Amino acid sequence: MELTNQEVAILARVAGLEMSDEDLKEVAFRLEVMLRKMDTISHPDLDVITPLPFLPFEEIRSGR
Amino acid sequence: MDGEQLVGVSAIELAQLIVAKELSPVEAMRWYLDRIDRLDPQLSSYITVCRREALQSALKAEQAVVRGDSLGPLHGVPLGVKDQFETKGIPTTAGSRILADNVPDEDATVVARLKEAGAIVIGKQNMTAFASGLGDRFQYGDPRNPWDLRRTASGSSTGSAIAVSASLCAISLGEDTGGSIRLPAALTGIVGLRPSWGLVSRHGILPVCWSMDTAGPMTRTVADAALVMEVIAGHDRKDPLTAGFPVPKYTEELSGSLEGLSFGVLCELTDQRFVDAEVLRAVEMAVKEIENLGAVVKRVSLPLVAEIEPVTEILCGSSAAFLHQELLRTRPGDLGPSRRRRLLAGSLIPAQTLEKATRARAIFRQEWQKLFLRFDGLLSPTTVSPAVFAEDEQIGDITSRDEAEERFIWHRSPTMGAALAGTPAITVPCGFNSENLPIGLQIMTDRFQEALMFKAAYAYEQTTLWHERRPDV
Q: What is the ipTM of this complex?
């Protein structure tokens, strides 16, 4: 999937962000690479795992 | 005591000399300050040097020794602090000119704890702006690696690593989100530790990514790192996500034998397509040494390691974009171009992608921790190469998709696994390449198993002389 500068400009406008042409070009490259790389990740548990960003609180408290 | 004898002296030795009245805290502080005056113009490891305050504190420390007061374990020890930690009455810039006038009215918890243990803040140390990855120039001078002044020392705790390596402070506090303590530590030949997430308070640290940020020691020896951890670890009511169990006496875990322990060497992090040949050779030698100490070592594979760079970029990029949304809208020109564009990209990540990254992280953590059912620890290089030339550092615009992939989706960064999983990791010097540049061995354990990590790191350190080599600056 190739992300055009125009598409990124629309996204930025929706998010209330201003970008110069130079910024736009590089942001498009960065965003496209991130999205493409994420698309390649597939794992059977992705749909079922609880997406905790850190360990359960009780485990942190006790050091288990 | 002859001043030059303090080069490379550990914090524990320094404190012992002070307690034994063989070295005055004022004399020690003057020695470090003079050395900063002499060497830092070319190393740029400090943003702020607290000369007056440090000497005043050293004088008080000296008076305490004379009075025979009860002294903390770091009494009179000069402490460098990455400029990401809030320090009462001392500017805290996070490496950015935007915060040049930011003077906190409170110390970060870890700074306060080190001061209570007797350490004296000598200055605030250079870092990449807002602890972001490399890409923009440093805003407070370009730090140089004391092992070769033409080279840098990665980031973001760059100044802290350089100052410890060049004996411009006795110990330092760094912050590690994805490798910011361990990478510069390895490239300057010192010890750097990322603790388990939740073991050390984050209160008073200017954040990067809340679920990955950690504070840890940067020192010249493993024993110093263990001592600093004893001081800074433990529950803090100002950071409710810190662990509630008593902090182990890490310095009492330092003993010589690794009999009965097992270590896995991660295939994905020792792949010769990604790792410099001399780095690999040094790490292989270190692995053999750990076997000689009685441990069982086997190779192990975790293919998910190859997928975590984009996950990390999504999580850190979106978190940083949220934290700096105001600056992005009001002062975009004051952010470096690379930083600004990373934040902009982070602001535009679709919700589904962010959710997928969070789930991918949970799966990775699960698989990572399964490795610790088989092994007590994991081993890898800390960096994929020794320090690079300053002109080769990644600075400038990204002009193509390939360059974007090459530059910000890092290739097999060895430090990322522990960061994403929230588990601890330490880097210890394990050799030098043919150009006399330091190489680091990374030792990782399961969460809250820092004592085991210290045991292994210390045992290895004691069989080598790498940590005793100091740069000729």
A: 0.93
